[in-house]
Specification:
single chain, 2 helices, mainly alpha
Length: 92
């Protein structure tokens, strides 16, 4: 029991001495630098996502253009094929 009390006394002195030596400025600075680095990386990713967003809008526009033009193109192909068939029939 006496050894345990000696240990607690020594440990208490150690921690009270360490508490006086340790300041929060060091760890707080490290944490701030870490957050700053993460923030810089996120800014870079945000600009990349802006570029991807722009590309997606262009793709949507192109797909809509195709949807609009495709029925007209299909109709034109049908008319051309029918014209060729009529020409062949007339030749017979």
């Amino acid at each position: 029991m006496e050894r345990y009390l000696d240990f607690l006394s020594t440990a208490g002195k150690y921690w009270s001495t360490m508490a006086k030596k340790i300041s929060l400025d060091g760890p707080a600075g490290m944490i701030k630098r870490g957050f700053d680095e993460v923030n810089d990386k996120l800014k870079d990713h945000d600009s990349r996502f802006d570029h991807v967003d722009k590309d997606m809008k262009e793709l949507k526009y192109d797909v809509n253009e195709i949807k609009i033009k495709l029925p007209r193109l299909a109709y034109a192909i049908d008319v051309k094929q029918l014209g060729e068939r009529v020409t062949k029939l007339e030749e017979k």
